[in-house]
Design brief:
Mean pLDDT: 85
Helix content: 40-55%
Oligomer: single chain
Strand content: 15-25%
Shape: elongated
Largest sheet: 7 strands, mixed
Structural class: alpha/beta
Number of strands: 11
Number of domains: 3
CATH superfamily of the largest domain: Periplasmic binding protein-like II
Radius of gyration: 24 Å
CATH topology of the largest domain: D-Maltodextrin-Binding Protein, domain 2
Number of helices: 12
Low-confidence stretches: 90-95
Distance between the termini: 50 Å
CATH architecture of the largest domain: 3-Layer(aba) Sandwich
Length: about 300
Amino acid sequence: MRHRQADGSVDLTQLRTFLAVYRAGSITAGAGQVGLSQPTVTTQLQALERRLGRPLFERLPRGVTPTAAAHDLAARVAGPFDALEIVVGDAPAEHTQEPPVLLGGPAEMLAALTLPSLAPLVAQGIRFTITTGLADELLADLRLGKLDLVLSTIRPRGRTVLAEPLADEEFVLVAAPRVAAAVDVARLRVNDLAGIPLISYAPDLPIVRRYWRHVFDTRLEAEAALVIPDLRAVLAAVVSGAGVSVLPRYLCARELEAGGIVTLLDPEDSPINTVYLARRVGGQSRPHVDLVRTRLLEAAEVWRTCVH
């Protein structure tokens, strides 16, 4: 796909404007990043859409959403533009306020560990825009420049993203004390879960099945009695006595300490996930992003005492 003006030259201005709007999710915010008026940005986007013969954005009451053509174009131009910024030193003026740090990760981990660690930076004037979601989706947005940093429970692949290990999250099999008292762990080992409700954040029980496979060396054959797409809600259901589940230790550490829930089993080798801090390789250096990265790496030392 080529994007050229009538004289055959590549229209870098329109592509740069497009990328700013794509990453910001708004014409107004994108205009502020490239130093243009909103009408000028709209005109440039319309010209680029005419050249491509396809719409790049769907206009919403608040902001815009990219079309498939926009995702394709961003994937093509993001890397070269970021590399060009390094070469030409296209940094914002010193008096210009830095844009918010775009941070993504699992909602539960952000709420329980990350955001409390970043609170002092907010007091220092660093702004944040937080995005929650699945690791694959967040890493895709990171590669396109829609995020600056991502907390990922899977290790990113490829040379465009650099990942640093932060901590290992340990998984524990838990229940409320009165539920645990009625559970014979030997039954669990042979998949006899009659009368033992399982609680999961997804219908296919990904965390629970992994625990069974790792600890009991067997494939779990069961269905969830309660599915809630939020681990914090799963924890609340376990505390209330609704059933048994597998949760990250950091998420339920307070409840375990207070006795609101108990572990049904304490194996020598519990299943774990390594949490990575991912960022793009290249691109213009951003002091606030660098400060956040440093803070997260420092905070990881404290987190390690919470996730085990």
